[in-house]
């Protein structure tokens, strides 16, 4: 509902339209009299699906994309079905207004929303564009003094991006449907992000580990102070470490000494009685600068590292903090701070940590974005005077407080003094009993002044071989030629490590470094590739699916430019140029779609694709003679048949376990799976009652048995009774109704190669009728997804083992039914998480594991946990919010079936 305020002095009403109700509620509290604030709830118009176009337009130049290719790529916008009521409300509110203020966000999307509102509402009163980087009284008052017109260049850039994504997706996605699987999609940024994850997995699959050895010892001074040092060279040649090996396990250089286990043990033994001395000592001053204030991407990275938030959760929480006036706008690629923010950060650092923690000169950070029109401030606490975490602790809880605290710490630390200290490096050595010169190294850093580190220290992503090198830690006071005694001198073996998988944080960082995507797109991109099944999470790591391999291979081979990193980054730069008014929308789209003399357009590439070998696209050689295929029902291994195999011979196949990551499917593992795979199908015999063949098979959902229904013979078809029309003409013979074959899932104790015909016939007769109770209710026993159970009407009860299905008696069943029912007919599983009582329903809120994944429930309302969110990331606040959103939507409406019109 709009938030109203009447200007008693003038009687005029000023209508302010924002994007969300939460933002509107906060703004209304800061505006003066006469303002009415309402929300558009995001975009009100968009491109429709081409199938939803009016019939007369489907055959026009609009028909393929809902974009008119013959009229300079003019988009055909429609008001979304779910926004028609909202548009009517906005028009009604505008009727009584004397001025209209469009106060949507200040980025491209917000500018486009403001333009769409202008096009749909067609106001006849003065219109003002109002933007503010934060929702505070000071910022809104400043914005009212700096109103402007809608920036058409920014609108053009957003419209170009929307049309570009429509052209890209609608031309390439159908190729994926035909050659890989239905329901897949291609996207300008999502396809490149998927390629990055797949390429990293390919590197891990090709990786071959190498082993190397060194020595680690504990050394003591004459005053008994000890420290650890690691062997770094022998006879003047550097010892090989993990960084000296290629991903194929080969040494990059011959100028290093590669110690194996035997050599390391021999050297350790030869040094046991050696006399060690300090050979050199170097001390350097240590200085470390604070990190810049948060941009969207660095916020997502740090929230992932420190708070374990997904990108989507980070942006959802940040959106709420912004709308409620706690932080500045959360979509920005600028690390700059306003003068007020710098002063506030310096003042708080001085008050909380001391004047010495604030440098004399203010720190100025420059954003990387060339697009000055979108260069917001960095993400920081809102206001000209920040609120500390202690000051917001009573109003913020859970994830919101954690993220606010992270933003506050980073902002204040960015204006604090450098951390100071010294780094000492020592080399020590000795000659072994067999005359080999061994040199060890150690280093240590001593922080003498913590500076910004008193408030905040930036996290980092895991890197390869990060535990290598000289030992860290504080070193005792040493000087050259000091004698040292060695203890615990031991050989230490290591294995080189493969490239680490991407996490959400490192993927966002890489996309930003490559110039692909923009701050507002990273969270949506990662959510999309996870929702499409291209990528799953294993802990924090992103693991590609086999279907992602097929998609990326097809795109690499047939749409090379469109998954090329430089090409995609150039498109982003071109969109920025359009936003700055340096390039034209129509000319750019023409070049992208139709091409020019230098480049071939997307339209030509798709039309000239030729034949794509779907089998090759969906095949990956895993081992000699073993190929992985991506099939309709998932990945499987296949051993291709020899050329002279008899016709009709089926190749050997084996299913690939769902929890096996691609890099874990080694050649050895593939051979193991092929050798342990049971037969795909085995004929068990004939049913003595029907004469039909009974077969055991391995299926997508496990092994099962099925009866084979023979096709009707020509004689049976010919002997069907003939039916006639009213005019006496014979009707065409009907096809006999298909008989549904009986089936039965195998018990866990059975397999395709061991199940007998007798067992199969028993399985296909399930459910088994035990009898009736005293009231005449039939009791049956059967097998289900959660194990064997009894069923009486709607009352189900679990029983012990699958074998009991064939042995349990009616008396035993009645005894089970005489006992109080356990929750759900079986022992209720413990909740995955508990969040106390819901303030609306006053029922306990828990997370349960359901048929379609984990879901949140208060016993009345259920809502599935978003796929991109791990259970560990879910907070009480987020759980209550999801339940509230589900309640607002109400129960899902069942589709109304239209009755067929009566025939005349």
TrEMBL record:
Catalytic activity: ATP-independent breakage of single-stranded DNA, followed by passage and rejoining
Keyword Transport applies: no
Molecular-function GO terms, alphabetical: DNA topoisomerase type I (single strand cut, ATP-independent) activity
Chain coiled-coil ranges: none
Family matches, as InterPro entries: Topo_IA, Topo_IA_2, Topo_IA_AS, Topo_IA_cen, Topo_IA_cen_sub1, Topo_IA_cen_sub2, Topo_IA_cen_sub3, Topo_IA_core_domain
Domain Toprim: 13-133
Record site: Interaction with DNA: 43, 161-162, 165, 170, 177, 331, 532
Region described as Disordered: 460-479, 885-904
Stretches with biased composition (Basic residues): 892-904
Domain Topo IA-type catalytic: from-to ranges: 151-600
Residue ranges, annotated region (Interaction with DNA): 185-190
Keyword Zinc in annotation: no
Signal peptide boundaries: none
Family classification: Belongs to the type IA topoisomerase family.
Subunit description: Monomer.
Descriptive protein name: DNA topoisomerase 1
Taxonomic source organism: Arthrobacter koreensis
